[in-house]
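Hypothesis: this fold can be encoded by more than one sequence.
Test: take the C-alpha coordinates below, design a sequence, compare later.
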Protein backbone atom coordinates (compact mmCIF):
# COMPACT_ATOMS: atom_id res chain seq x y z
CA UNK A 1 0.00 0.00 0.00
CA UNK A 2 2.68 2.49 0.99
CA UNK A 3 4.66 1.66 -2.14
CA UNK A 4 1.62 2.44 -4.30
CA UNK A 5 1.01 5.72 -2.43
CA UNK A 6 4.60 6.77 -3.06
CA UNK A 7 4.21 5.93 -6.76
CA UNK A 8 0.99 7.94 -7.00
CA UNK A 9 2.46 10.98 -5.28
CA UNK A 10 5.53 10.83 -7.52
CA UNK A 11 3.31 10.52 -10.58
CA UNK A 12 1.20 13.55 -9.67
CA UNK A 13 4.27 15.62 -8.82
CA UNK A 14 4.92 16.03 -12.55
CA UNK A 15 3.06 19.16 -13.81
CA UNK A 16 1.87 17.70 -17.12
CA UNK A 17 0.80 14.37 -15.64
CA UNK A 18 -1.12 16.39 -13.06
CA UNK A 19 -2.76 18.39 -15.88
CA UNK A 20 -3.93 15.16 -17.53
CA UNK A 21 -5.33 13.87 -14.25
CA UNK A 22 -7.16 17.17 -13.61
CA UNK A 23 -8.67 17.06 -17.11
CA UNK A 24 -9.93 13.53 -16.50
CA UNK A 25 -11.42 14.61 -13.17
CA UNK A 26 -13.28 17.43 -14.91
CA UNK A 27 -14.63 14.96 -17.46
CA UNK A 28 -15.57 12.30 -14.87
CA UNK A 29 -17.50 9.98 -15.12
CA UNK A 30 -16.92 10.06 -18.86
CA UNK A 31 -14.08 8.45 -20.79
CA UNK A 32 -11.70 10.61 -22.84
CA UNK A 33 -9.63 9.39 -25.77
CA UNK A 34 -5.87 9.74 -25.72
CA UNK A 35 -6.08 11.83 -28.90
CA UNK A 36 -8.46 14.33 -27.33
CA UNK A 37 -6.31 14.60 -24.21
CA UNK A 38 -3.09 15.39 -26.07
CA UNK A 39 -4.92 17.82 -28.35
CA UNK A 40 -6.53 19.68 -25.45
CA UNK A 41 -3.27 20.00 -23.55
CA UNK A 42 -1.00 20.61 -26.55
CA UNK A 43 1.13 17.50 -25.99
CA UNK A 44 2.93 15.34 -28.52
CA UNK A 45 1.12 11.99 -28.92
CA UNK A 46 4.23 10.07 -27.84
CA UNK A 47 4.63 12.25 -24.74
CA UNK A 48 0.96 11.93 -23.85
CA UNK A 49 1.17 8.16 -24.21
CA UNK A 50 4.08 8.01 -21.74
CA UNK A 51 2.29 10.21 -19.21
CA UNK A 52 -0.97 8.27 -19.51
CA UNK A 53 0.96 5.03 -19.10
CA UNK A 54 2.49 6.33 -15.87
CA UNK A 55 -0.91 7.39 -14.52
CA UNK A 56 -2.36 4.01 -15.43
CA UNK A 57 0.51 2.13 -13.81
CA UNK A 58 -0.06 4.19 -10.66
CA UNK A 59 -3.74 3.12 -10.75
CA UNK A 60 -4.85 6.75 -10.93
CA UNK A 61 -6.63 6.20 -14.25
CA UNK A 62 -8.30 3.26 -15.93
CA UNK A 63 -8.26 2.57 -19.65
CA UNK A 64 -10.24 0.58 -22.16
CA UNK A 65 -10.10 0.11 -25.90
CA UNK A 66 -12.95 1.08 -28.20
CA UNK A 67 -12.18 0.29 -31.82
CA UNK A 68 -8.81 1.86 -32.52
CA UNK A 69 -9.00 4.33 -29.64
CA UNK A 70 -7.79 4.06 -26.05
CA UNK A 71 -10.20 5.71 -23.63
CA UNK A 72 -9.15 6.88 -20.17
CA UNK A 73 -11.08 7.70 -16.98
CA UNK A 74 -10.05 8.94 -13.55
CA UNK A 75 -10.02 6.07 -11.05
CA UNK A 76 -11.88 7.50 -8.06
CA UNK A 77 -11.54 4.48 -5.78
CA UNK A 78 -7.77 4.75 -6.02
CA UNK A 79 -7.86 8.50 -5.42
CA UNK A 80 -10.06 7.97 -2.36
CA UNK A 81 -7.49 5.50 -1.05
CA UNK A 82 -4.71 8.02 -1.61
CA UNK A 83 -6.53 10.79 0.25
CA UNK A 84 -7.57 8.43 3.01
CA UNK A 85 -3.99 7.32 3.57
CA UNK A 86 -2.67 10.88 3.62
CA UNK A 87 -5.28 12.22 6.01
CA UNK A 88 -5.89 9.22 8.25
CA UNK A 89 -2.68 7.16 8.33
CA UNK A 90 -0.02 9.71 7.48
CA UNK A 91 -1.49 12.81 9.17
CA UNK A 92 -3.42 11.04 11.94
CA UNK A 93 -6.82 12.31 10.86
CA UNK A 94 -6.25 15.90 12.03
CA UNK A 95 -9.52 17.80 11.43
CA UNK A 96 -7.65 21.02 10.70
CA UNK A 97 -6.11 19.33 7.65
CA UNK A 98 -9.45 18.31 6.17
CA UNK A 99 -11.04 21.37 4.54
CA UNK A 100 -14.81 21.20 4.56
CA UNK A 101 -16.73 22.52 1.52
CA UNK A 102 -19.24 25.25 2.12
CA UNK A 103 -22.66 23.82 3.04
CA UNK A 104 -25.32 23.95 0.38
CA UNK A 105 -28.37 26.02 1.19
CA UNK A 106 -31.18 23.79 -0.06
CA UNK A 107 -33.53 26.79 0.08
CA UNK A 108 -31.48 28.71 -2.51
CA UNK A 109 -29.58 26.71 -5.11
CA UNK A 110 -27.60 28.48 -7.84
CA UNK A 111 -27.00 26.28 -10.89
CA UNK A 112 -24.63 27.31 -13.70
CA UNK A 113 -24.44 25.62 -17.12
CA UNK A 114 -21.10 26.20 -18.80
CA UNK A 115 -19.95 25.66 -22.38
CA UNK A 116 -17.64 27.34 -24.84
CA UNK A 117 -19.85 29.54 -27.01
CA UNK A 118 -22.95 29.84 -24.77
CA UNK A 119 -25.02 29.99 -27.94
CA UNK A 120 -26.84 26.64 -27.96
CA UNK A 121 -26.34 23.79 -25.47
CA UNK A 122 -25.85 25.80 -22.28
CA UNK A 123 -28.58 28.28 -23.22
CA UNK A 124 -30.99 25.46 -23.97
CA UNK A 125 -30.15 23.84 -20.63
CA UNK A 126 -30.69 27.16 -18.85
CA UNK A 127 -34.13 27.57 -20.39
CA UNK A 128 -35.22 23.98 -19.71
CA UNK A 129 -34.19 23.96 -16.05
CA UNK A 130 -35.46 27.48 -15.44
CA UNK A 131 -38.87 26.48 -16.75
CA UNK A 132 -38.90 23.47 -14.43
CA UNK A 133 -39.65 26.18 -11.84
CA UNK A 134 -37.98 24.50 -8.87
CA UNK A 135 -38.60 26.60 -5.73
CA UNK A 136 -35.50 28.41 -4.52
CA UNK A 137 -33.43 27.55 -7.61
CA UNK A 138 -31.76 30.16 -9.81
CA UNK A 139 -30.37 29.05 -13.18
CA UNK A 140 -27.64 30.70 -15.24
CA UNK A 141 -25.39 29.91 -18.18
CA UNK A 142 -22.16 31.33 -19.56
CA UNK A 143 -19.41 30.64 -22.07
CA UNK A 144 -15.65 30.46 -21.77
CA UNK A 145 -15.43 32.04 -25.25
CA UNK A 146 -19.00 33.21 -25.93
CA UNK A 147 -20.38 33.99 -29.35
CA UNK A 148 -21.84 37.40 -30.09
CA UNK A 149 -25.42 36.12 -29.92
CA UNK A 150 -27.47 32.95 -29.39
CA UNK A 151 -27.82 30.51 -32.24
CA UNK A 152 -31.17 31.24 -33.97
CA UNK A 153 -31.96 27.54 -34.52
CA UNK A 154 -31.43 26.89 -30.80
CA UNK A 155 -33.86 29.70 -29.96
CA UNK A 156 -36.48 28.40 -32.40
CA UNK A 157 -36.09 24.88 -31.02
CA UNK A 158 -36.84 26.19 -27.54
CA UNK A 159 -39.71 28.44 -28.65
CA UNK A 160 -41.48 25.59 -30.46
CA UNK A 161 -41.48 23.70 -27.16
CA UNK A 162 -42.97 26.55 -25.18
CA UNK A 163 -39.86 28.10 -23.63
CA UNK A 164 -39.50 31.86 -23.27
CA UNK A 165 -36.24 32.93 -24.93
CA UNK A 166 -36.56 36.66 -24.38
CA UNK A 167 -33.90 36.82 -21.67
CA UNK A 168 -31.43 34.38 -23.23
CA UNK A 169 -28.14 35.81 -24.48
CA UNK A 170 -24.62 34.60 -25.04
CA UNK A 171 -22.42 35.97 -22.27
CA UNK A 172 -18.95 35.56 -20.76
CA UNK A 173 -18.29 34.28 -17.27
CA UNK A 174 -17.58 37.83 -16.15
CA UNK A 175 -21.23 38.73 -16.72
CA UNK A 176 -22.33 36.24 -14.06
CA UNK A 177 -19.51 37.14 -11.69
CA UNK A 178 -21.66 37.34 -8.56
CA UNK A 179 -23.15 33.96 -9.40
CA UNK A 180 -19.65 32.48 -9.67
CA UNK A 181 -19.03 33.45 -6.07
CA UNK A 182 -22.20 31.71 -4.94
CA UNK A 183 -22.53 28.80 -7.39
CA UNK A 184 -23.75 25.58 -5.80
CA UNK A 185 -23.76 23.31 -8.87
CA UNK A 186 -21.69 23.80 -12.04
CA UNK A 187 -22.52 21.62 -15.04
CA UNK A 188 -20.39 21.67 -18.19
CA UNK A 189 -22.22 20.60 -21.35
CA UNK A 190 -19.40 20.69 -23.88
CA UNK A 191 -16.14 18.77 -23.85
CA UNK A 192 -14.01 21.75 -24.82
CA UNK A 193 -15.13 23.77 -21.79
CA UNK A 194 -14.56 20.79 -19.50
CA UNK A 195 -11.09 20.19 -20.95
CA UNK A 196 -9.90 23.64 -19.88
CA UNK A 197 -9.20 24.44 -16.26
CA UNK A 198 -11.68 27.31 -16.23
CA UNK A 199 -12.30 29.67 -13.33
CA UNK A 200 -11.71 28.93 -9.69
CA UNK A 201 -15.10 28.39 -8.09
CA UNK A 202 -15.24 29.73 -4.52
CA UNK A 203 -16.94 27.44 -2.04
CA UNK A 204 -16.08 24.26 -3.95
CA UNK A 205 -19.44 23.76 -5.72
CA UNK A 206 -20.64 20.38 -6.91
CA UNK A 207 -19.42 19.87 -10.48
CA UNK A 208 -20.31 17.41 -13.20
CA UNK A 209 -19.85 17.04 -16.93
CA UNK A 210 -22.96 16.45 -19.05
CA UNK A 211 -21.15 16.57 -22.38
CA UNK A 212 -23.14 16.58 -25.62
CA UNK A 213 -22.13 17.00 -29.28
CA UNK A 214 -22.34 20.56 -30.57
CA UNK A 215 -25.35 20.91 -32.89
CA UNK A 216 -23.94 24.20 -34.21
CA UNK A 217 -21.10 22.35 -35.92
CA UNK A 218 -23.32 19.80 -37.68
CA UNK A 219 -23.04 19.96 -41.47
CA UNK A 220 -25.74 19.10 -43.96
CA UNK A 221 -28.97 20.54 -45.27
CA UNK A 222 -31.38 22.65 -43.22
CA UNK A 223 -33.53 19.68 -42.21
CA UNK A 224 -30.52 17.71 -41.02
CA UNK A 225 -29.22 20.61 -38.93
CA UNK A 226 -32.63 21.16 -37.34
CA UNK A 227 -32.73 17.50 -36.40
CA UNK A 228 -29.40 17.89 -34.58
CA UNK A 229 -30.82 20.67 -32.41
CA UNK A 230 -33.92 18.60 -31.67
CA UNK A 231 -31.70 15.72 -30.57
CA UNK A 232 -29.69 18.05 -28.34
CA UNK A 233 -32.90 19.36 -26.79
CA UNK A 234 -34.17 15.82 -26.11
CA UNK A 235 -30.87 14.79 -24.52
CA UNK A 236 -30.79 17.85 -22.30
CA UNK A 237 -34.44 17.47 -21.40
CA UNK A 238 -33.88 13.88 -20.29
CA UNK A 239 -31.00 14.84 -18.02
CA UNK A 240 -32.71 17.90 -16.62
CA UNK A 241 -35.98 16.05 -15.97
CA UNK A 242 -33.95 13.50 -13.97
CA UNK A 243 -32.25 16.33 -12.08
CA UNK A 244 -35.53 18.12 -11.37
CA UNK A 245 -36.98 14.89 -9.97
CA UNK A 246 -34.23 14.57 -7.32
CA UNK A 247 -35.31 15.03 -3.69
CA UNK A 248 -32.95 17.99 -3.35
CA UNK A 249 -34.07 18.87 0.18
CA UNK A 250 -33.10 15.45 1.54
CA UNK A 251 -29.89 14.63 -0.33
CA UNK A 252 -26.52 15.05 1.35
CA UNK A 253 -23.80 16.85 -0.56
CA UNK A 254 -22.11 13.53 -1.39
CA UNK A 255 -25.39 11.97 -2.54
CA UNK A 256 -26.12 14.98 -4.74
CA UNK A 257 -22.68 14.69 -6.34
CA UNK A 258 -23.28 11.00 -7.04
CA UNK A 259 -26.71 11.83 -8.46
CA UNK A 260 -25.43 14.40 -10.98
CA UNK A 261 -22.65 11.99 -11.96
CA UNK A 262 -25.23 9.28 -12.60
CA UNK A 263 -27.31 11.67 -14.70
CA UNK A 264 -24.23 12.31 -16.84
CA UNK A 265 -24.30 8.64 -17.81
CA UNK A 266 -27.85 8.76 -19.21
CA UNK A 267 -27.95 7.97 -22.90
CA UNK A 268 -29.01 10.88 -25.15
Amino acid sequence: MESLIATQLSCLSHPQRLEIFQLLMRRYPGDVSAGEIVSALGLKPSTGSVYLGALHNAKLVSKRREGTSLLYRAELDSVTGLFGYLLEDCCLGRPDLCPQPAPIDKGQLNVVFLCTGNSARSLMAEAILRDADIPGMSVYSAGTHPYAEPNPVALKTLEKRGHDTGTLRAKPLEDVGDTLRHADIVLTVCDRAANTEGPKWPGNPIRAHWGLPDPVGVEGDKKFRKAAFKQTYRALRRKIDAFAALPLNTLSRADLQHAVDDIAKLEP
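Residues 109-264 form a domain with the Rossmann fold fold (CATH 3.40.50.2300). The chain has two domains: 2-97, 109-264.
Hypothesis status: open.
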